[in-house]
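Hi X.,

You mentioned you wanted examples for the new student's onboarding notes, showing what a folding record looks like when two proteins sit in one file. Here is a clean example. The first protein comes first, with its sequence line followed by its structure tokens.
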Amino acid sequence: MSTADRDERPDKPEEACGVFAVLAPGQQVANLTYFGLYALQHRGQESAGIAVFNGDKVRLHKDMGLVSQVFDQDVLARMPGVLAVGHNRYSTTGSSRVCNAQPVVLMTRLGPFALAHNGNLVNAGELREAIAATDAELTSTTDSELIAFALQEAVNGGLGWKEAIRAAAGRCRGAFSLAIGTPGALFALRDGHGIRPLVFGSFGEDGDHHWVVSSESCGLDIIGATYLDEVAPGELVQFRAGDLEPERSRWSMQPTKLCVFEMIYFARPDSRFFGESLYSYRCRIGEVLARESAVEADLVIGVPDSGIPAAIGFSQASGIPFADGLIKNRYVGRTFIQPTQAMREAGIRVKLNPLPDVLSGKRIVVIDDSIVRGTTSRKLVAALREAGATEVHMRISSPPVTHPCFYGIDTDNQDQLIAARLSLQQIEAHLGVDSLAYLSKEGMVEAAHAASTNFCTACFDGKYPIEMEEEMRSSKLMLEPAGLAASL
């Protein structure tokens, strides 16, 4: 990747994937899945796909692009059925090509199945060697396809669906939240640590009872489904048409390690975690941040959209007024038109534009949720000063990102993480701010109203909950001293 291309990437941990599935005889399941994926679009914008079951037949449509680009009413009208499995993708294992788009659909002795995966396996190389030894015809470079082939092998070896899913999951290490459609049932499974989220709900009237599985509760809300529960870490849930209760069983018992970045940044603020919306949590971490790193200023502004709730919390706790000092172009998505060098030098104005009449002559506290590389943050600070801000104090509503993620988030190699290379004072100088402070790890966890042991915080402290292949580890831990890297 060129320096220019790297600078154009968001200065954030980049997306996880989104999975969504509906079991609803008599309903337009493809349309419902379209809207579910639309609600989960923030989790991945590279490709989208839907597989629909109609009896023992499956129709699959997937392509590169946003949900609204991949599907239209004509495509959806050609996908009748009773069960649908959908996926939005951001590539973490496997390149961004249509062959790597999901769901993965394979045939077995019991009929076809469709699998959608959010997460990342840390033993993909080992599993790929084992799958390749069976003469399986791999068509992609994703770990998701490896999970699907492991399931196919288990079914063709004589196991029923439920037992085969358990057997396939047992061969996987890492993060995997799965939705699996079969001719007779819908299954949802979460890895033993529950690193990526997965929830389910239901909808229906007059005795109908339909089931929905989604990466986040916002996917349920958009189609009017009622949230029932999360798929627990290490749980396999089976849904059948007409059943009033799903069949739930635990296949793995491990300590819960939900990715804390789901709380801080990835999941939508209206999605529910631990019994409340993430908006409430993000306001609270802003309040904690204000107490931990007080500063004299005239205005608090947030970086849209993910920094806004924390900025509101910071304002409320500090008494410094909140204002909209940055306007986001909400129609900017991923584009295939590459900017010229002159456009790059114009900074981030294509996405964020400061308001000089709000900022001029003011001491500004700007709240953002994270800094990964520091590229766009530096441009943002320059734009705020150009708009007339006399002081720029940056406050980050998460701890410094010092380690890469191996569990389904693209955080670059460690040499690209600014907090792994520079001290706080050096980062301040690099960004051009008057002061910089991060939220403490203790404050981040305490604000969640959940035990600190319930979260994976490896990107902040290097404490990885799942062992991984050395090749994967070494590619992203190149800055660690040999002894320390081996102990992580």
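Then the second protein repeats the pattern, sequence line and then tokens:
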Amino acid sequence: MSKVSTASAKRRKGVAAAVEPAPERGGRAAQKLETRRRIRDAAWALFTELGYDETTTKAVAERAEVATGTVFVHARDKADLLMMVMHDRLAAAVDAAFEGLPRRDPLLPQLLHVFKELFAMYGEQPVVSQAFVKAFPGASGPNGERLNALTFAFLHRIAGLVRDAQARGEVAGDIDPLAAAHNIFALYFAALLSWLSGFVTLGAALDPGLKSALALHYRGLRA
């Protein structure tokens, strides 16, 4: 199994287990988590089979074998369902990326390692991923809020890499790590948008697109 397929397997395992909220005691709480899992899996299956635009919340409810009203207990609308499924996939991809991080490498290869994992996740289902990148900015449902929290946590993990690079004497000490992380994330999202807009393939958005942009930014961070 290649490194990419191994990482993909970790993402799939993570979606099924690691990113689920910790079960609370009591049958009702466990039942609620199970219902959420069924709705999430049904939404993902339909998004990948029919496409996001053609999927309805009624179809998701039927696939999950729940009432339509139950779907709205777990997601505000169809866009929030998309946030639900992508939150779990992104969380698993981020965890897999940092788990396999080459700790002895300089900052630039570390960043490329992390973003390569995310780009690979998006590339597994490009049509669904494109719908997500369009819908995510401004998402305000409960699952959108969870995604915003995940994004902020990701920014702090990137800031941690910058801080580690400062400790190695690789990045200037007067650089604000979190500000640098925000700039890095902006370059990453711009690369995603270049793919979404059809200017480049997803692979080219990463290399040379994001790779070149990060290399230029990295020069400005150097000590």
